Structure formats: C-alpha cells, structure tokens
C-alpha cells in the first residue's frame, strides 16, 4: 500500500484536516494507495511558501542555475523511469509500454527546456547612443499548475519545466484520481537543494484548484482538463487578472480521402482512437471517411476490432487497458447508448468485455459507431474513451465545413496522397495541430494547444516558455540633462 503526503515549503506533511482518499486500480478496483487529501487551508500554506520563495532567494537564481536544475531533473527521471512507469500504469490503467514512452518524453521535455533556458538573453533595441534600451523576460511569479488524470506526469512536466526554468515558483495539484507519479516526482525533487517553497505539491479535490485560481497571491494558473472546470478557473482568475493557460480537450476529426493509402489509414485510425483507451485530449475519435471508400473502411475496422487485446497493462501482449474510473466508464456507455438511440449503427463493442477477468475494473470493448451524422450528440461531445464515431462525406468542401463546425479546435488529421489538397486542408482546418498522413506525434520543440473552446495559450516550444514570463522594457539614460521645458 502506497501512502502519500503533501510537500509544502520543503517539508513533507499531512493535510491540515487530516484528509485521505483511497486510490483504486482501474484494472480490478482494489485500493492501491491512500493519498493525502488537501483542502483550501493546505493550498494557502503552499501559496504562502511559494510567495516567500519567489520574493526571496529564488528570484535571484541565474539562467545557468535553472538550466542545470532542469537537466538534473531529467537525469532523476531517467534513473527512476521504470519505477515511475509502473506507478503510472498501476494508477491510470495504460499499458506499461505507453508509460515507458511517457517517461522518455518527460525527460526529453526537461532537457529541451534546459537548453532553451540556457540560451536566454535579453534583446538590445536600437536607441540613441546615450541610451541602453533592452527587452527583458522575467518570471511571472507564483504559478498554480493543475493537471489531468490521463497523463499525470507528462502534463505536469509540460508545466513544471518551463515554469521553473523561467524562474517561477510552483504549486502543483494533480488529479485526485491519479496522484501517484506526481508524488514520486516530488520525492525525487526533494533530493535536490532547491530553496524551500520553490516547488510545492498539494493533492486534493476541486477546492484546492479553486484556491489556486482565486488567490491574489498566485500570478499564473495553468490548467489541463475539462471545459466546465476550465470555465470556472477562468472566472475565478479575474480576481487579480492573473495569467491563465487552459488546455480543455477537443473533438478531433480524422479525415480520410479516397486517394489515401488505405492500409495505413486504417491502422492509424485504430491508433488514433484506442491509444490509452481513447483517453487522450487529441484522440481521433471522430472518423470522417470519403463516401467512395466508406463501406470498405468500416469493414476493415470491423475486422480488426475483435483482435485488439484488452487486458492488464503490465502484460506484454496487452494493447489496450481499462478506462480510468467508474464515472468515466458510465459516461462512455451512456454516450454510446445515446448514439444508438439517435440512429448510429453499433458495429462493435459498446459494452464490458466478456470473461471473469473483466468483472471487476473499468473495462470497455473498443467501440465503433458507424453512419453517424453531424447533428448527433456523439459527433459533437468529447467522449474520452475507446470509441470511434464514423461519418461519410462527399467533397473537400463538405468535410471542411463539418470538421470546423465544432466548439473545439485542438487537433485534426488528413489522409491523402494529394499534397496540394493536404496543404489546403492544413491551412483551412481551425485546429492547433493538423497532422497529414500521421496521428498523435508531438515534439517539445513544437507548440501544443487549441483554438476556440480547446483552450487559451500554448504549451511546449519557445512559446510555452514565454507563457511563464513577463515582458519588460528596460530604458537607461546614460547622460541625463535638464530639458529646460516646463516653466524654464
């Protein structure tokens, strides 16, 4: 049994109110951990500690010191990668292969931002010879970082690395469903000689996140999660007009034209929808196939779906694990049932797999709903589970209109051999990432985020670092003289 604590002001401690939460395995519903359940009081202690640290010695930390810190963190991740991966799979249900990939990506994220921070320098502006004019980037201050349950440590790394690299102090609040790898990360950071209060961990429910969003002593809040919670954070942040970054998910079209490489497009359509059981903000759950190949495409998917190996993420043969929680399991089943009621054709799945091993845990068969129309709820709402909804289209103009007719705008993909068409679609699709003849890859060097209801701001890349800085114009007059103007 794993027991977690809060990490505040350089010290491990129990929550003020002594709260605890049982953490369940999504594979069999056994209790795998007892996590500290913080409250607003704990969040306030962490905010105060982060404020003192930022206003104290950390504010004078140098670029080289912070770049060195991020590289040290990457080394710690590498050394503990297998342990972290096992915790991630235990807590989220994803396969150990997926979790190991995550750990490599996390270390790469810290190394990328270490290199970026090390190359930082202020820009010197053109000015009269007696003036030094510089554009400087300075840390925002105290950052509240709120992460989701599907990629607990990866999403944390996307926030922590640029926040610390830019010279901020942080309070991280992971999802109360999946706190284990973030807690282990805090244990690793406790081995370093960080000043007290630079890094703080407060696990708990929505009230912890609400305190981070509302507090006038927090200068920035970055949140990844659902749109409803993001809206609440955005409203709460107006109290001191704090900087906000929101990544709120998507309804992502995966568009297949008749001239695409069919074998490859089918293979990637499965990966787009069922990687991590579809619990990916950029999952390609909205499949849109040109009419000329639609029936064949659906038939090929139907042939592959029963062969997907569903099971415990620690088994080498497993290709898809369970969904993370009972609430998510119930939500997905209801949406599938609603789709059938609206007229969609259930080709495969839509239920718990048969067998004693699946009686406990949050298991779902990979599901395909065909003949979906754009006015159906399942074509509009983010399902966040192992479900593909398939729609027909007859022209480039039609599919572009349908794909853009969504409140979201996170990611999209286009499958075609026609590079001119690919270029037109890439430019016309209103999504933060558009893949052509691929799905899911991202790089620390490239920005990540979405249009419209998919959020505000970007993570990763140079822009992701800039999100955690304030711009300042520094003007120094080296030879001041009287003006002799007013009242002279």
Automatic annotation (TrEMBL):
Keyword Transferase found:
no
Q: Which molecular function term from Gene Ontology is one that the record holds? A: oxidoreductase activity, acting on the aldehyde or oxo group of donors, NAD or NADP as acceptor
Annotated metabolic or biological route of this protein? Amine and polyamine biosynthesis; betaine biosynthesis via choline pathway; betaine from betaine aldehyde: step 1/1
What CDD domains does the database record attribute to this sequence? ALDH_BADH-GbsA
**Keywords associated with the record:** NAD, Oxidoreductase
Q: Which residues form the active site?
A: 247
User: What does the similarity note say?
Assistant: Belongs to the aldehyde dehydrogenase family.
> What positions belong to coiled-coil segments?
none
Biological source species: Crenobacter luteus
Please provide an example of a Pfam family that matches this protein in its UniProt record: Aldedh
* Matches recorded under InterPro entries: Ald_DH/histidinol_DH (IPR016161), Ald_DH_C (IPR016163), Ald_DH_CS_CYS (IPR016160), Ald_DH_CS_GLU (IPR029510), Ald_DH_N (IPR016162), Aldehyde_DH_dom (IPR015590)
Aldehyde dehydrogenase domain ranges (all copies): 20-473
Q: What is this protein called?
A: Betaine-aldehyde dehydrogenase
